Amino acid sequence: MKTKNASSKRESDGYIFILPAFIYMLVVLGYPLVYNLVLSFKNVDVKNLTKGGSVFIGFENYINLFHDSTFLLVLRNTFIFTIACLVFQFTIGFAFAMFFNQKFKLSGPIRGMILVSYMMPMSVTGLLGKNIFSNAGLINDLLSKIGITGPEWLVSGSTALIAVIIMNCWVGIPFNMLLLMSGLTSISQDVYESASIDGANWGQKFLHITLPLMKGSILAVLMLGFIYTFRAFDLMYIMTAGGPLNATDVLGTYSYVRSFTQFKFSEGAAIAMVLFACLFIIGLFYLKLLAKEDD
């Protein structure tokens, strides 16, 4: 009986300790999310915001969005940007993690220098990218030295998204490298030594030892990378402000423009809910994969 009472007391104490965090999450995250959802089902703009004359219109905002060619372009840009960044960030980050996992003299200092880009604020990265890819910036200056006339990176719709992807990868590669290195260091060297004794080469070790044992780390890196990249806002807004002609607009920037530039608050809320729905589905997919892995 005493053991049961002690267990109940510990459980109630645990609830008391997590109560402040729960209230914080409810106020800071829960209320804005519910308010934004309700707003997306109304017709709220700058004309009726102060008068309180908004009306409930149901799914009309969402229907209009998916019949809007600009929104479909923005949605396409978001997925292209996210997938391209994931591919390059993960591939190069994994290669760096494998390289710096080897023991050599300057691995620590070089790894620290690579991490500088990850530690920089995204606003600074955006300003840096804006200067690097400007018409008279570093990239075009280097190209001119070898006799190549560089494109107008941030003015042309065909190159603006490429420039933004490059700068985002510059930030994301160290993040991927850091997380993947932690997964590599958890693999015992005894496993590799046993495989070497059995005659396994580098490729066989990588395919049959490294990748299977790092499955959890790889999955976490890809999911986190998708979430962080899919909701990108500040890099695009600083470098291109979504231009030219929505060529670099993603869901985050388009929602901001609709809400706080064009003052169509309900449409901006609907775009934000589409962004949330995409991330929510990815989160559920990740949890399902984790559950399957545990089984």
Report on the structure:
With 295 residues, the protein is mainly alpha-helical. The chain has a single domain, classed as Orthogonal Bundle (MetI-like fold), CATH 1.10.3720. Helices cover 75% and strands 0% of the residues. It contains 14 helices and no strands. Helix 1 runs antiparallel to helix 14 (265-294), helix 3 runs parallel beside helix 8 (157-185) and helix 6 (122-132) crosses helix 8 (157-185). The longest helix is centred in the first third of the chain and has 39 residues, at 2-40. The mean pLDDT is 87.
Features:
MetI-like fold; single chain; 14 helices; 295 residues; mainly alpha
Summarize this entry quickly:
The protein has 295 residues and is mostly helical.
Q: Strand tally, please?
A: 0
**Beta fraction of the residues?**
under 5%
Order of helices and strands: HHHHHHHHHHHHHH
Q: What would the average pLDDT be, to the nearest integer?
A: 87
Question: What's the assembly state of these chains?
Answer: single chain
The total tally of domains equals 1
Structural class: mainly alpha
Our Rg estimate from Cα atoms comes to 24 Å
CATH architecture: Orthogonal Bundle
* CATH fold field value: MetI-like fold
User: For the report, how would you describe the main beta sheet?
Assistant: none
* Measured distance between first and last alpha carbons: 35 Å
Low-confidence stretches: none
What percent of residues adopt helix (DSSP H or I)?
over 70%
* Shape label: globular
CATH-defined superfamily = MetI-like
Helical run tally: 14
CATH class: Mainly Alpha
